[in-house]
Amino acid sequence: FNVISAIFVESTMAAASSLEHAKRNSRLQDKTLWFTRITTLIRAMTEMSERHSLHGKLSDSVDEIHEVAMESKMIDELVALDHVKDALNDLDIDPDDHRYLAELLDPDHGATIG
Fold first, then answer.
1. Separation of first and last alpha carbons in the chain
2. CA-closest candidate to residue 37, choices 74, 89, 76
3. Nearest Cα to 41, choosing from 49, 28, 9?
4. How far is CA 63 from the centre of its chain?
5. 36-58 pLDDT, tens per residue?
6. CB 46 within 8 A of CB 53
7. Rounded mean pLDDT, 108-114
8. Who contacts 34 (Cβ-Cβ below 8 Å, separation ≥6)?
9. Are 72 and 102 in contact (CB under 8 A)?
């Protein structure tokens, strides 16, 4: 009986893992999810910037977005905002990694990202 139970539990766990993997891949392939969450992040960055503000479609402001530069410490403030946390979570960025985003986005440690 224990062997049968163990086989059942193992196959159930494998199926659950496979299903979770398929769901995650589906989310990562969802272009609408990607676009909307990246838009949320870009808008939040420009709202925090004192020199930049965006109105309307992001595609109309590509040059201005390209010019946005932020101090690394502002990324830490940005990540503290609930709607930014939600966007990062929706993009499957581990919440434990949120506190390291400024460091990851500033690999030369120049204190600015842009």
1. 61
2. 89
3. 49
4. 23
5. 999 898 888 888 777 766 777 88
6. yes
7. 74
8. 28, 91
9. yes
Separation in Å, CA 60 to CA 16, 44, 54: 44, 17, 9
**Which residues neighbour 74 within 8 Å (Cβ) at sequence distance 6 or greater?**
48
What tens digit of pLDDT does each residue of 84-98 get? 999 999 998 999 999
- C-alpha distances out from residue 95 to 52, 59, 80, 86, Å: 28, 29, 11, 10
Q: Token pair of 88, please?
A: 């990062």
The CA R_g of the chain, rounded to the nearest whole Å, is 20
